[in-house]
Amino acid sequence: MDPPDAPNAESTVEQKRSYEQWERSNRMCLMVIKNSISVAIRGAIPDSENEKTYLEYVEEQFKGTSKAHASTLILKMLTSKYDGVSGIREHIMKMSDMSNKLKSMDMEISEGFLVHFIMTSLPASYGPFKINYNTQKEKWTMSELIAMCVQEEERLKVERPDVAHLTTTNSKKRKGNRQGGGKGNISKVPKIGASVSSGPYCKFCRFKGHYQRECPKFKAWLTKKGIPFNPDIGKKAKSD
């Protein structure tokens, strides 16, 4: 608020009290404002004993910064692509948030344009979904876009499971087996040879005491695979 006239000898008690209250409020406001601004930025802002004037200086100082921030937001929106990891809802909300920030800088983006903009940021796996939207006459609102995209994301999860994730997980397990169990596997090789020469040995379950053709696990495996059991299997092998 504008400061009241400074009291003089002719001022009433009420006028003096009003000025003292304003002066105290002004001083407290200035202290709060300045303490909320970092020292480096505060040094570039002209000083003033009036909080209203000081705020005007702050606004002038950040006009250029707002333009730079708007340019950054626009560039970020242009380059944003859905990675398929964070979730389609979060991606859309992030794009909408950037649009709202631009709106506060008098750079409003219409809802229809934003919907098209977000559709172009979706990956190739959403190709049929985008084609279906483009062939419709109706335009979606942001709420409808979120609902439809979430539904499409769930459908893709069912029809196209994350094979890459499973492949990566399996490759890590195989790598771990080579690194952690390599030495153990090497040490077991001579034991297998010894067990074969010392008596009956099953090559299927790797236990002594019976041959592969007698192994219940081997027979169960054949049944599961639909392979007829041959009781003479392995008889020609010297080890059996």
TrEMBL record:
It comes from the Eukaryota. Residues 161-191 are annotated as: Disordered. Pfam families: Retrotran_gag_2 (PF14223). This is CCHC-type domain-containing protein. It comes from Cuscuta europaea (European dodder).
